[in-house]
Amino acid sequence: MQAATGNPTVLLDPVVAPRIAVTRLAAGLLQGLLLYWLYSAAQARAWPATESHLLAPLMLIGLLLPVLLVSSLGHLSLRRTGLWMAGAALVLTALALHDVSRGGEHFLWGNYKPGAPLRVISAQLFGFCVVGFYIAHALVMASAQDGRRLASYATYFEIAWKLGIQLLFSLLFVAVLVLVLWLGGQLFLLIKLNFLKKLLGQAWFVIPVLCFAFSFAIHITDVRPSIVRGIRTLLLVLLSWLMPIAAVLVAGFLLTLPFIGFERLWATRHAASVLLGMAGLLVVLINAAFQNGQAGLGVARGIRFGTRLSCLLLPWLVGIAIYALTLRVMAHGWTSERIIAGACLLVASCYAAGYAWAASKYGDWLNWIANVNVGTAFIALLVMLALFSPLMDPARLSVASQMARLNAGKVSADKFDVEYLRFEGARYGQAALQQLSKRTGPDAAVIRARADAVLKRENRFDDTGVLSDVAINLTVRPAGSSLPDSFLRQDWSEAGPGWRLPACLKRAGQQCDAYLMDFDGDGRQEVLLISNDPRASSVLLAEKEGGGWYARGQIPTETLRCQPLREKLQAGQFALVPPKVRELEVDGQRIPMSLYNEQEVSCPEE
Q1: What does the UniProt keyword field contain (predicted)?
Q2: Which pairing describes strands 584-586 and 512-517: parallel, antiparallel, or unpaired?
C-alpha cells in the first residue's frame, strides 16, 4: 500500500500505522449505524423516510461512500481523500435525486404499510453506481499513486485487479460470517438456547456487524498485498487458458451462421443480450491474457493466437448484436432495456474497434489494448452518467418512442402496451397515460378505457376490481366473431384457481388472442385464450351447464413460445382432430391416459 503522502515508493506498514486500521473499522461501524437508522426510520415511516428527496441520497451515500473511504485511507493524502469523498458524495446525491424525481419502482425498506410508497433508490441505479464508482475509484487511486492525472497502464492494471479481488473476497468473508453465525445459532438451539437466533433477527445487530465485517475484510486484504497479488496471478493464468476455447467457439459460431441462416438467431428474441454477454466475456479473457502488457512473448503460443483471434472476432460479434437490437427496435420501438443494451453496445463497440486495431499490428504484443482500456473506461463513465441523468433517461426516451409509434399508427390501440407506460415509464409514462385518457380520434374509446384502467392499479400485480371490460384486452379470432355475452359478464375473480387464468382477464395492459372453437364437439363454443406476453400462457375456458365459465385446460407453454406456430394459429391455419389415444370409462367415469415418450411439438423454420 502507498503512504498517505502519495509517494509511490513508500510502503505503508500496518504495524506502525494503527490509526489507519482504527479509522477504517470506525468507518465501517458508522456505516452500519447510519444504515440501521435509515432502515428503522423506513419501517416506522418516520423522518427522514418521510422525505424521499432526503432518504434516497442518504441511502446511496451510506451504502457506497464508506466503502470508497475505507479503500482510500492509507493510499490518498487527507486532502485528496476529502476532495474525492466530496466529489463522490455530490455525484451520488445528484443521481439519487434524479432517480426519485423520475418516479418508478424502487426499493422498499421495512414492512409495507398503507400510505404513500417510500421513494428510495432503484436497483438499477445502485447496480450501475457500483460498477461506475469501481471504475472511477481505480482511476483516482492509480492517478494518486503515479502522481499524475493519467497513470501508467501497469498502475491501472494493478489497482483495478486489486480492488476487484478485494471486493470479491470481502463479500465472501461477509457471506461466510453469516453462515458461521447462523450455524452457531443452530448449535445453541440444540441445547434449547435461542439467544443467538433471536439476535440474528435483530436489525440493530445484523446491519452494523455486516458493515463492520466488510470494512475489516477490506483492511485485511489491503495490508497483505502479496496475498492479493498471488490470487490475482493464479486467477489470470487460469482465465487466460480459457481464451483459446472461447476463440474457437466464437469462430465456429460465426462460420456456421451464414449456412444456418440468421432467421434462427432473430427468432430467439434475445440474441442481442447473448451476443453482448459473449462479447463481454471475450473482453475479460483478452485482458486476462494481456495482463499489464509487459508479458509479451512470455505468453504461451496458444494463448497469444487465441487472444489475437478473439480481438479480430470481437467486431463481428458486436456488429451482429447491434443489428439484432436494431431489428427489435424497428419492430417494437425503444424500451428501457433496449436503451441500456444500446449503451452497453456503444461501450462494447469501443472495445471491439480498439482491440481489432491492436490485433492488426503484428509487430507487437497487442500494445494498443492498454490505450483502448483506459479510453473506454472514461467513455463508460460518461455513458453511465448520461443514462441516469435527464440527458439519456431510458424511461423518458422509451416512452417518447412508444408514443411516437402509437401516433404514427405503427401499433394499434388494442395492442399498445399501456402497462409498460404505467410501471416502467416512471413519471414520463404517467404523463403519457394522462394524455391517452383524454385522447380523441380513431380508436380513442379503446385507448381511453385501457389507460383509465391501468392508471387505477397500485402495482403491476394488482388485479382486483380494476378491469371492468375484458373485451379491451382481447383480440377475437377468427376476425369478425363475437365473444358470448355470458363470457363478457363473467366475474373472473371467481372462475377457479387464479394461476390458471392469463393476466388479460384481470389487468389492463395485458393482451390475449381469444379463439372461438368447439373443442369437445357438443355444439357449444369454448374460448381459448393465448397471452401475447413473451412468457406466453394459455387457458381453455368452457361454460358450465348452469352458467358461468371455468378453466378447463391449457396448451404447453413451450409450444406457445414458437413464433411460427403462433403466426399460423393467428392466421387460422389449424384444425381440431380427435386424440390419438382413447380414454377409459369405468363405472360411468372417464379416466384420461397420461402418455409417456410422445413426440414433442417441434418449432418449424420461419
Answers
A1: Membrane, Transmembrane, Transmembrane helix
A2: unpaired
Average pLDDT of the residues in 273-301: 88
**Three-state SS for 38?**
helix
Chain-centre distance of CA 216, in angstroms?
30
What strands, in cross-sheet order, belong to the sheet with 474-477? 474-477, 512-517, 526-531, 538-543, 549-553
Using one digit for the tens of pLDDT, what is the confidence trace for 85-100?
A: 999 999 999 999 999 9
At 523, give phi and psi (nearest 5°): 90, -5
Cβ–Cβ contacts within 10 Å for residue 377, how many? 17
Q: Which helix (H) or strand (E) holds 155?
A: helix 153-189
pLDDT digits (tens, 9 = 90+) for 369-418: 999 999 999 999 999 999 999 999 999 999 999 999 999 999 888 788 88
528 three-state secondary structure = strand
- Band (pLDDT 50/70/90 cuts) for residue 61 is very high
The three grid cell numbers given for residue 497, joined into one nine-digit string:
384457481
Cell of 522: 357438443
Instruction: Judge whether 283 and 351 are in contact, CB under 8 Å.
Output: yes
Neighbour count for residue 601 (Cβ, 10 Å): 12
Query: Do residues 250 and 313 make contact, with C-beta atoms less than 8 angstroms apart?
Result: yes
CB atoms within 10 A of CB 582: 10
Calpha distance 370→153 (Å, rounded): 6
Any idea how long the chain is? Answer: 606
CA distance 554 to 557: 9
- What residue has cell string 490470487? 231
pTM of the model: 0.82
Per-residue cell: 593? 391416459
Place of cell 452500519: 32
Strand pairing partners for 513?
A: 475, 530
Looking up cell 399498445, which residue turns up?
Answer: 416
Which burial class, exposed, middle or buried, applies to 341 when counting CB atoms under 10 A from its CB (0-12, 13-18, 19+)? buried
DSSP labels for 81-139?
HHHHHHHHHHHHHHHHHHHHHT-------SS--SSSPP----HHHHHHHHHHHHHHHHH
Q: What's the one-letter identity of residue 249?
A: L
Amino acid identity of residue 151, one-letter, is A
Cell readout for 467 is 378491469
All residues at 6 or more sequence positions from 237 whose CB lies less than 8 Å from its CB, including other chains = none
| Cβ-contact 310, 286 below 8 angstroms | yes
pLDDT of residue 550 exceeding 60: yes
